[in-house]
Specification:
- With about 325 residues, the protein is an alpha/beta fold.
- It folds into 2 domains: about 220 residues, Rossmann fold (3-Layer(aba) Sandwich), CATH 3.40.50.300; about 60 residues, Reverse transcriptase/Diguanylate cyclase domain (Alpha-Beta Plaits, 2-Layer Sandwich).
- It has 11 helices and 13 strands.
- The strands form 3 sheets. The chain has a 6-stranded mixed beta sheet with strand order 5-6-7-3-8-9, sandwiched between helices.
- Strand 8 and strand 9 form a beta hairpin.
- Helix 3 packs across helix 4 and helix 9 crosses helix 10.
- The radius of gyration is 23 Å and the shape is globular.
- The two termini are about 30 Å apart.
- The relative contact order is 0.15.
- The N terminus and C terminus are likely disordered.
Length: about 325
């Protein structure tokens, strides 16, 4: 059966409509909750170790190196694996005992290429809609709409075997959306894509969460990618929780001003140094410590004006999330 969400829901006599703007996540129930969740293979290999975390609605990044336990966690959440000990809840349901009910409300995009090359995208996504319990006509309509949302509407009747890697990733996303889920589990959605394809996929995932109101758990080993689109982040390492928090809580402003000019960076750095302002470089940025109540901001602006440089940025530098995960070993803040 289809989930209780509605980004593809048909109003009487109208087109599919997204969830209400401004309050995108209609259901505020906890998405995922684990309590001392542990999974071992053969009694020797530990994939998850005493994992306790709570995930609220939104776009959530699950990050960790390859082998950190991300895929094992997803399989447990889908009811495909039973935990060795501890428990998990998905949308208030126990995936071990209520796997069918969980999968009716959750869409899953696997990491690996598992698409039938001899079917068209329309046929494949319709088939997955039928498997989810949709009537034949509704499955066809939902499949077309899902493929439209991921940008494959014009190509929907081509065989998947002739698709590029980026198009195949979009088919996998469309089949995860077809039954109108409340939660999407995306396992390495940018896998195999070039930089432009990665940007397009991340923008699409963000749109699904921000405009359609579907909560998303994005699994990736690339922290720098997912932090661009996520409301919160969870990091695991060796099956253990490293940190879990709202993104806004992690990126607090520092007492450092970041300056970026379109040209003349070296000249500006020399002028600031001559004005007794300690300057350091970070890529195209110039970083200058700023004490509260000081005139550093005005002195920087004066230097920029005197050199007649095009100022692109002058603001307080925010901590990079990657730095915070690297320096925080055992935070247990809930998402």
């Amino acid at each position: 059966m289809a989930g209780h969400g509605s980004h593809l829901r048909e109003p009487p006599g109208g087109n599919p409509i997204p969830r209400r703007a401004g309050s995108p996540y209609a259901d505020r129930v906890t998405l995922i909750a684990t309590d001392a969740l542990t999974k071992t293979y053969g009694g020797r290999v530990t994939a998850l170790a005493d994992l306790t975390v709570e995930v609220q609605p939104g776009i959530v990044g699950l990050v960790g190196a390859n082998g950190a336990g991300k895929s094992t966690l997803i399989k447990i959440l889908l009811g495909l694996l039973a935990p060795t000990s501890g428990q998990a809840r998905v949308l208030g349901l126990n995936p071990t005992t209520d796997a069918d009910a969980v999968r009716a409300r959750v869409g899953y995009m696997p990491e690996n290429d598992c698409l039938p090359p001899d079917l068209s995208a329309a046929e494949f996504v319709t088939h997955l809609g039928r498997i989810s319990g949709l009537p034949r006509a509704a499955a066809r309509e939902r499949a077309s709409e899902a493929l439209r949302h991921v940008g494959l509407y014009e190509e929907r009747y081509r065989q998947i075997g002739g698709y590029s890697t980026g198009m195949k990733q979009r088919v996998k996303l469309a089949q995860a959306l077809v039954h109108d889920p409340d939660l999407l589990l995306l396992d390495e959605p940018t896998n195999g894509l070039d930089p432009a394809g990665r940007d397009a996929m991340l923008a699409l995932v963000h749109r699904i969460g921000a405009e359609f109101g579907i909560s998303v758990l994005v699994c990736s080993h690339l922290l720098g990618e997912v932090e661009r689109i996520c409301d919160s982040l969870i990091a695991i390492d060796g099956g253990r929780l490293l940190r879990s928090a709202q993104l806004s809580d992690m990126t607090t402003a520092s007492d450092v001003l970041a300056i970026e000019v379109s040209e003349g960076t070296e000249a500006l750095a020399a002028r600031l140094a001559a004005a007794d302002l300690p300057v350091s470089r970070e890529g195209q940025l110039l970083l200058v410590p700023a004490e509260t109540g000081s005139d550093v901001y005005d002195r920087i602006l004066t230097a920029v004006v005197e050199l007649d440089l095009p100022l692109h940025r002058l603001d307080q530098r925010r901590h990079r999330v990657a730095e915070l995960f690297a320096t925080t070993e055992d935070s247990r803040v809930n998402v």
